[in-house]
UniProtKB/TrEMBL annotation, chain A:
Belongs to the cytochrome P450 family. It comes from the Bacteria. This is Cytochrome P450. Pfam families: p450.
TrEMBL record, chain B:
Residues 338-408 form the Reductase C-terminal domain. Keywords: FAD, Flavoprotein, Oxidoreductase. Residues 9-315 form the FAD/NAD(P)-binding domain. This is FAD-dependent oxidoreductase. Its cofactor is FAD. The keyword Flavoprotein applies. Pfam families: Pyr_redox_2, Reductase_C. It comes from Streptantibioticus rubrisoli. InterPro entries: FAD-oxidoreductase/Apoptosis, FAD/NAD-bd_sf, FAD/NAD-binding_dom, FAD/NAD-linked_Rdtase_dimer_sf, Reductase_C. The keyword Cytoplasm does not apply.
UniProtKB/TrEMBL annotation, chain C:
Pfam families: Fer4_15. Keywords: 3Fe-4S, Electron transport, Iron, Iron-sulfur, Metal-binding, Transport. InterPro entries: 3Fe4S_ferredoxin (IPR001080), Fe-S_cluster_ET (IPR051269). This is Ferredoxin. It comes from Streptantibioticus rubrisoli. It comes from the Bacteria.
């Protein structure tokens, strides 16, 4: 059997529950590590950070030497400036500053309510699945309300979302991946159509959600085209519910593995914001991003040819001992925690503030009930994706009845 | 012995950002001796950048910008007390009321003050301001809130431009006069100064370049009524702010035999002050705007700058070196970094833009008001300035730190065609300007006064 | 409590504005303005903002007490 490349081993589902030893191996292998297929892997903090700020590195897959065939124009997540900036700015108008600075802050009460309702439903249960019963329904409900998507359509968009996430995953090229790309493209078209139709229903009848804001924008210079609206809305709906679920589930998993830290957070709830940041470092929902140099570029003594896929292992950078003291220790009081959990540079996660508010609400509400809980399966079963990594299920036993 | 350095008496003269951060860092470094901080203003350390922005906009009051402590430095704060002299032989700081403070090690962090309007009688007119202190800002903000007919800002540097921007945002009429060809030209050179001039005019500022104010006029009651300009015109204004740059607070060191002059107190890379003969002292340290320090990236010339980040970084190095034995000392190598927000634009600079012969637009465009300008000197990158593109700055900072070739290598997605064509940086001689750069290279000589020292009999 | 933001480090990610919009504001697309004095009812939000800052530029702490000792 041919020796597998690091990228193949990292993306191998068998290693999903603990990729961190492979990341350590990656960092040992060098700062920029060539894979057998010619692509590069970067796993050290300072190099990842530098590449995320390097204007010569493109996020656009159409700049690959062999770009995916017939791929449509990607959403702003995978576009470069100035087009990325234009679209992200338009998408930001109903979501955050400078145009809507208080939008997310104003949702805190609603997010707490949804959290409390979900917890209420678990009151008499001895066993719960943290993912299905809590970590998944919370962000889905929130992003549906924020965007203006009917919550009951979740089974519909879940299918599309799964296909899109699978096609966007980082993995070595093979015949399955071509099939997955095709299914992903089809799902993007259908999901985009579905969201544009929802938005169109609100033209002239705004209902306070983001889809309404997009189609009722009074300034013609600030309007998204139909295609841009489709791509943007698909991106926001997927990102809004495929990532925060991992952050919350990873949080519960980490705290149940570290009862001392769980106990500490129960006693010192003021630490929660920093604990969420530490989670984003220690068990980030997004493990990798791909970049492509627009010219031949030399990084840390290695020359990367124009158009070569360069995978940045953010989760590995977060565990780099050259940047973080005792990186494999979960420490909510860690000073100077400039993690890469949301990336860095111009593509820093658009929804980061919403994810933070949701994770703080979710963990803050759940932590008081976890005192006597324990994991029924450790490690838990993981979702397939390597890039968006998190448990598929997280069954736990709640020994003690809910306090009122 | 290293242990001894953690004890004894340390006096810090200057109770602003550098003084506070140095005091905290001394305790952080394990200093257990007595610590005294002397400040001539009656207030605990406060933050100055908001004074020309939030405070003038009326968002916050001038007395609310107190700086948070990283930790309580357990110091004796002597506030509202001016240091008037230094006896380096007897190791005493002389205070205004005659008392003197003995020290084992001294940190000079006296900063700068606003350069006043040169005619004292005119400067005393009611309505004439400078902007440096909390009291200055409180007085000016109060006057702006009262709705003056017109504000005259003399000097188109960063402070003058920020004042003009705040006035326009408040709906006030503003005239800015600048002796040079454009605002900010002394700090950023020709190309960006044209953008600055456009921002002034597009926002309704009456911008007059190439002129000076020859006189301020008052009415019979000593109230400002306007100004005469060198082109023969007259500006009617009831408020005037002289934004003519900063003066180093070194006068109290005049008899101390140190290398103190108009550009500041010269020190080595470890923040130790030089004496007037260029000999380094070992008990007098310097940090912040009052210092002049050598930088390896800029030909070891002594840098003189007025930057928030430098005050913080240099204070930490100075504090470390004050309590560390020789081989454990650290150099102050931080790259000059600066920001300004005006007319809705965020301008950030890294490096020394005035050490340049050419510039290129590396990313974005002037038309979009989103731009990265890279400065080169003799074929290497020496500075970068971003306008609303701060996330790009770390990349260019790295180019400066590694003395990368200029113009920078191509490949940026948003690199304009013009990036291939460096143009002259057009940094004029500051002598012909009403404003100066916030970072300047001041040569290699620790003390220019060496040439005028007279032997005493 | 007081805050100060190291605007030398700030890159305009605006996470603080999302999380504590009454204390932090954008001035234009990228410039940051803020109130140094934090009202008690904003303290929890400011703690979140300080924790969330991607470049860890926000310092929250007590002011030096006015009269010294």
């Amino acid at each position: 059997m041919a020796a597998e490349t690091l990228l193949e081993r990292i993306t191998d589902y068998a290693n999903r529950s603990d990729p961190y030893p492979l990341y350590a191996e990656l960092r040992e292998a060098g700062r920029v590590v060539r894979q057998e297929d010619g692509s590069y892997l970067v796993g050290t903090y300072h190099e990842i950070s530098a590449l995320l700020h390097d204007p010569r590195f493109s996020a656009d897959p159409r700049n690959l030497t062999a770009p995916p065939e017939g791929a449509p124009k990607p959403p702003f997540l995978r576009l470069d400036d100035p087009e990325h900036h234009r679209l992200r700015t338009l998408a930001m108008r109903p979501f955050g500053p400078p145009h809507s600075p208080g939008r997310i802050d104003a949702m805190r009460g609603e997010i707490t309510e949804v959290t409390d309702e979900l917890l209420d439903g678990l009151r008499d249960r001895a066993q719960i699945d943290v993912v299905d019963d809590f970590a998944y329904p919370l962000p889905v409900t929130v992003i549906c309300r924020l965007l203006g998507v009917p919550r009951e359509d979740e089974p519909l968009f879940r299918e599309w979302s799964n296909a899109i996430v699978a096609s966007a995953d980082v993995r070595p090229e093979d015949k399955d991946s071509i099939e997955q790309d095709r299914a992903g493209d089809q799902a993007r078209i259908e999901m985009g159509q579905y969201l544009v139709n929802l938005a169109e229903q609100r033209r002239g009848h705004p209902t306070g959600d983001m889809l309404s804001a997009f189609v009722n924008e009074p300034d013609p210079a600030m309007l998204l085209t139909r295609e841009e609206l489709a791509e943007t809305a698909v991106l926001l709906l997927i990102a809004g519910h495929e990532t925060t679920v991992n952050l919350i589930a990873n949080g519960v998993l980490t705290l149940l593995r570290r009862p001392d830290q769980l106990d500490r957070l129960r006693r010192e709830p003021d630490l929660l914001p920093r604990a969420v940041e530490e989670l984003l470092r220690y068990e980030p929902p997004v493990h990798m991003r791909e970049r492509i140099p627009l010219a031949d570029v030399e990084i840390a003594g290695t020359s990367i040819a124009k158009g070569t896929s360069t995978v940045l292992a953010l989760a590995s950078g977060n565990r780099d001992p050259k940047r973080f003291h005792e990186p494999d220790r979960f420490d909510p009081t860690r000073p100077d925690n400039e993690h890469l959990g949301f990336g860095s540079g111009i593509h820093l996660c658009y929804g980061a503030p919403l994810a933070r508010v949701e994770a703080q609400a979710a963990l803050g509400a759940l932590i008081p009930h976890l005192g006597t809980a324990y994991l029924l399966q450790d490690p838990p079963p993981y979702r397939y994706a390597a890039m968006l990594r998190g448990p598929r299920h997280l069954p736990i036993e709640m020994q003690q009845p809910w306090p009122c | 012995m290293a242990g001894d350095r953690r004890d004894g008496r340390i006096v810090i003269v200057g109770a602003s950002l550098a003084g506070l951060r140095a005091a905290e860092a001394l305790r952080e470094e394990g200093f257990t001796g007595s610590l005294t901080v002397v400040g001539d203003e009656p207030y605990p350390p406060y933050d100055r950048p908001p004074l020309s922005k939030q405070v003038l906009l009326g968002h916050v009051a001038a007395d609310t910008t107190g700086l948070p402590m990283r930790r309580d430095p357990d110091a004796d704060w002597r506030l509202g007390v001016r240091a008037t002299g230094l006896d380096p032989v007897d190791k005493r700081v002389v205070l205004a009321e005659g008392e003197s403070l003995p020290y084992d090690r001294l940190l000079v962090a006296t900063g700068t003050r606003a350069r006043p309007w040169p005619n004292p009688r005119e400067a005393a007119l009611d309505g004439v301001f400078t902007l440096r202190t909390r009291d200055d800002a409180a007085g000016l903000a109060e006057r702006l809130a009262a709705g003056p007919q017109r504000v005259l800002v003399i000097g188109g540097g960063f402070t003058g431009s920020e004042i003009a921007s705040a006035c326009r945002e408040r709906g006030l009429e503003v005239t800015v006069t600048e002796r040079g060809p454009a605002p900010l030209v002394g700090a950023l050179g020709g190309t960006l100064s044209k953008l600055a001039a456009a921002m002034h005019r597009n926002n309704g500022v009456d911008l007059r370049c190439g002129v000076t104010v020859t006189a301020l006029r008052g009415d019979g009651n000593g109230r400002l009524t306007g100004a005469d300009l060198s082109d023969g015109s007259r500006v009617e204004a009831d408020v005037c702010v002289a934004a003519l740059g900063a003066v180093r607070n070194v006068e109290w060191l005049a008899e101390a035999g140190l290398a103190a002059g108009p550009r500041g107190l010269a020190c080595d890379a470890g923040c130790r002050a030089f004496d007037m003969y260029g000999i380094v002292t070992d008990d007098v340290f310097v940090a912040g705007d009052v210092s002049r320090f050598p930088h390896p990236l800029f030909e070891y010339q002594l840098l003189s700058l007025e930057h928030w980040g430098n005050a913080v970084a240099q204070a930490e190095v100075a504090a470390h070196n004050m309590v560390s034995a020789g081989p454990l000392r650290r150099p102050h190598l931080a790259l000059p970094t600066f920001w300004s927000t005006q007319f809705g634009l965020n301008i950030k600079a890294v490096g020394v833009p005035t050490l340049s012969d050419h510039v290129v637009i590396a990313q974005g465009s002037l038309e979009e008001r989103r731009v990265v300008m890279v400065y080169g000197y003799r074929g290497r990158v020496t500075a970068a300035v971003t306008v609303d593109m701060a996330k790009s700055l770390p990349y260019y900072q790295h180019l400066i730190e590694t003395a990368a070739p200029f113009p920078p290598v191509p490949g940026a997605a948003d690199r304009p065609i013009a990036a291939e064509i460096p143009v002259p940086s057009d940094v004029p001689d500051p002598k012909g300007l009403s404003h100066g750069p916030t970072v300047a290279l001041t040569g290699h000589l620790p003390d220019r006064r060496l040439t005028v020292v007279q032997p005493t009999s | 409590m007081r805050i100060v933001v190291d605007l030398t480090r700030c890159q305009g990610y605006a996470q603080c504005v999302f999380l504590a919009p009454e204390v932090f504001q954008l001035h234009g697309e990228e410039g940051l303005l803020y109130s140094s004095a934090v009202p008690d009812d904003q303290l929890e939000r400011v703690r979140q903002a300080a924790a969330a800052c991607p470049v860890q530029a926000i310092l929250l702490g007590e002011e030096v007490s006015a009269r010294g000792r």
